[in-house]
Amino acid sequence: MFSLQKKIGIFLGATLLTASPAFAFDAGLIDSASFDYGTGAKVRLVRVGLQSDWDPRWRWLASNGRHLSGYWDVSAAYWRGTAHRGVRGDRQHIGVIGFTPVLRYGREDKLGWYVEGGIGANLLSELYDNYDNKLSTAFQFGDHVGIGYITQNKWDIGLKFQHYSNASIKRPNSGVNFAIISARYNF
């Protein structure tokens, strides 16, 4: 049976992915949707997200048809650990909701190659304890760096390195790392 914390995480994630998009699509706030798959030490991740580009006036370092700007990312994820409490084969299932502001350096026409990085806030449905990695708080910072390419038909394919940690607010705090492939469609 799910714990209260897990139920709250599932409810918030479902609310995020159903109620918010309906309003945001009508209001024109959502610019893209994404699907990510990641892998780490004895843990896998799948994540869906919705993105909203920053105001077009928020641009820096513009030159040669490139600039620095960004977007807001709201996501819901599922982690599956395969060595819960250090026991190989013992599974741990965690829901994660997150909000991340992301800086992106790319072309003015939003096509071709880009680099990006972001630091956001995440809430886990339960404490992570997998393969001798432990997180002692449900709140975690999630930071990533990545590269990607946006095609003419609006698909954005990227690779990211993602790190979750509570910045040593409470120990233990071994952190969790993922290598992620991302597919995003721009509306």
TrEMBL record:
The Enzyme Commission number assigned here is: 3.1.1.77
Q: Which InterPro entries does this one have?
A: Lipid-A_deacylase-rel, OMP/PagP_B-barrel
What's in the keyword line of the UniProt record? Answer: Cell outer membrane, Hydrolase, Membrane, Signal
Pfam families named in the record: PagL
Molecular functions (GO terms):
hydrolase activity
Compartment(s) where it occurs, according to its Swiss-Prot or TrEMBL record: Cell outer membrane
Q: Where is the signal peptide?
A: 1-24
Catalytic activity reads:
a 3-(acyloxy)acyl derivative of bacterial toxin + H2O = a 3-hydroxyacyl derivative of bacterial toxin + a fatty acid + H(+)
For membrane topology, the record states:
Multi-pass membrane protein
Oligomeric and partner information: Homodimer.
Would you identify the family this protein belongs to, as annotated? Belongs to the PagL family.
Q: What does this protein do?
A: Has lipid A 3-O-deacylase activity. Hydrolyzes the ester bond at the 3 position of lipid A, a bioactive component of lipopolysaccharide (LPS), thereby releasing the primary fatty acyl moiety.
Could you identify this protein by its name? Answer: Lipid A deacylase
Source species: Massilia niabensis
